[in-house]
């Protein structure tokens, strides 16, 4: 029941595509040499463009416009939320930061209390234990009857 000459498993589309791409871009093939020269030329051209003052000025102004539009949009959204008497994103973030700080303070306080309790237990263990005074040995109360 064994098949002595089984054909190799067929390659998937992705595997065939990657193999073809490897062949086309290999430096020893004609297409690979063309690809390498094109890549080097494009890299030099991109380097020149990115160092150009006019490109930097244009890209900087486009980024600034995008950031300003985002700031305006966030302001409008927060204004609408305030109108609806809902908390804004910045208010929620402020409250979250305050809660985080408060949580840190509570944890620090808990640690300090644990240290105080440990110190008190040590002091109680170091002091000689004196028996509780009996009612007859107690000082008379200054309370009037």
Annotation keywords:
145 residues, 4 helices, 0% strand
Describe the protein's topology.
Elements: H1 13-25, H2 30-51, H3 53-83, H4 89-126
SS class: mainly alpha
Distance between the termini: 113 Å
Roughly how many Å is the radius of gyration?
A: 39 Å
Largest sheet: none
Summarize this structure briefly.
This protein is mainly α and 145 residues long. The chain has helices at 13-25, 30-51, 53-83, 89-126. The chain is built from four helices and no strands.
Question: Can you characterise this structure?
Answer:
The protein has 145 residues and is an all-alpha fold. It has a domain at 87-126. The chain has helices at 13-25, 30-51, 53-83, 89-126. The longest helix has 38 residues, at 89-126. The relative contact order is 0.03.
């Amino acid at each position: 029941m064994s098949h002595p000459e089984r054909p190799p498993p067929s390659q998937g589309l992705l595997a065939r595509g990657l193999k073809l791409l490897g062949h086309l871009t290999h430096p020893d093939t004609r297409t690979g040499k063309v690809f390498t020269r094109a890549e080097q030329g494009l890299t030099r051209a991109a380097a020149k463009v990115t160092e150009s003052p006019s490109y930097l000025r244009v890209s900087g102004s486009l980024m600034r416009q995008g950031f300003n539009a985002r700031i305006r949009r966030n302001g409008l959204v927060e204004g609408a939320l305030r109108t609806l008497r809902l908390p804004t994103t910045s208010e929620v973030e402020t409250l979250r930061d305050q809660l985080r700080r408060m949580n840190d303070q509570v944890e620090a306080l808990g640690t300090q209390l644990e240290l105080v309790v440990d110190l008190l237990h040590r002091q109680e263990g170091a002091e000689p234990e004196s028996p509780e005074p009996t009612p007859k040995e107690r000082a008379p109360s200054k309370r009037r009857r």
